[in-house]
Amino acid sequence: MVDEHPIGVAAERTGISPHVLRVWERRYRAIEPTRTDGGRRLYSDADIERLRLMALATAAGRGISQVAKLPTKELARLVRDDEEARRQLGTTRRGRTSGTTAGNDVVAARARARALDAVGLERVLRRSAALVGASAFLDTVATPLLKEIGDQRSAGELAPGEEQLVLVALRRVIEGIVPVLIVSVDAPNLLVATPVGDRQEIEAVMATAGAAIEGWRVTYLGPGVPVSEIAVAAASTSARAVSVTVPRAGNNDLLLQELRALRARLAARVPLLAGGAGALEIAAELRGAGVQVIEHLTDLRLALRVASQSET
User: Fold this and answer.
1) How far from 270 is each of 135, 290, 307, 310, CA to CA, in Å?
2) Domain edges within the chain
3) How far, CA to CA in Å, does 42 sit from each of 10, 30, 33, 64, 218?
4) Does the model's pTM come out above 0.90?
5) How far is Cα 120 from Cα 124, in angstroms, rounded to an integer?
6) At what angle do helices 143-154 and 201-213 cross, to 10 degrees?
7) What parts of the chain have a pLDDT lower than 50?
8) What pLDDT is stored for residue 196 in this prediction?
9) CB distance 179 to 197 below 8 Å
């Protein structure tokens, strides 16, 4: 795996322009990239992670002169504290409402996606996540963006490759958020999986971020995991809750049978949380079988709060 990246890659992954990267290096000694024999800057993965944290810290309103002096671990703690404050207060940087900022960002993201501008799309999303915070980003940017993409797919209005472009960009940005939301090693564990297919995987990735925001550890199994394996993994990881995301199934009876079987294999105290279009189609039947249907990320957060308060 390559651990040396040119300045263009560092800029793309952090959302910081090459010019600003050079200024932060020269003026504030924020980072010290290595150099090739020809003098080109090379950034390690650790350098990029540090830069990403500094971008988040400065987006929250802190000066680069302050954050550039901090060790990376202290930067991560500071960013987590800022995120928690935004989550509790429901505010965004410099008094702008999250609804206005997020709405503009969804429009900008759709424009970049239609143009198949992968770099521009990811920069819009990273900037949005930094400005509104992880929780608001998931609720007011990622979720509406996915809904628009889904609606346009159903209407046959998407350009070739457009949906995949959005899914990849969102996943990269969300997976970049999760490491900042470091939780205690003794926090309750959520097992996350997608039993069928991979289109719904982005929703599972969003669930991991939503759980981390609530202070949960996450074991993510990925897509295409049989329900029997999910049950075994839940037991072996001492999961306090299990979250599955399922697409529409050609046979809802079979889907219901599988989720009922999974519910039966889990310990009674472990809630089974089912989201995705497939779960919504048979929501009443699932609830009758003791499965909690997750329509929005807010439902997931509330379910995890209840589960975290239950006795182990």
Assistant:
1) 25, 11, 8, 10
2) 7-82, 93-178, 183-309
3) 9, 15, 5, 21, 32
4) no
5) 6
6) 170
7) 1, 91-98, 311-312
8) 64
9) no
Distance CA 60, CA 54 (A): 10
Quote the CA–CA distance of 271 and 262 in Å, as a whole number: 11
CA separation (Å) from 210 to 69, 174, 297, 310? 30, 10, 7, 19
Closest CA to 239 of 266, 262, 260, 212: 266
| Token code pair at residue 18 | 């090459």
Please determine, looking at this structure, whether the domain spanning 7-82 carries the CATH number 1.10.2020.10: no
> What are the C-alpha distances in Å from 310 to residues 119, 219, 273, 297?
44, 20, 16, 20
Q: Does domain 93-178 have CATH number 1.10.630.10?
A: no
Q: State how far the alpha carbon of 297 is from the alpha carbons of 135, 203, 250, 263, in Å.
A: 9, 9, 25, 21
Helix or strand or coil: residue 35? strand
CA distance 106 to 141: 6
| Token pair for 112 | 């970049």
CATH architecture of 183-309: 3-Layer(aba) Sandwich (3.40)
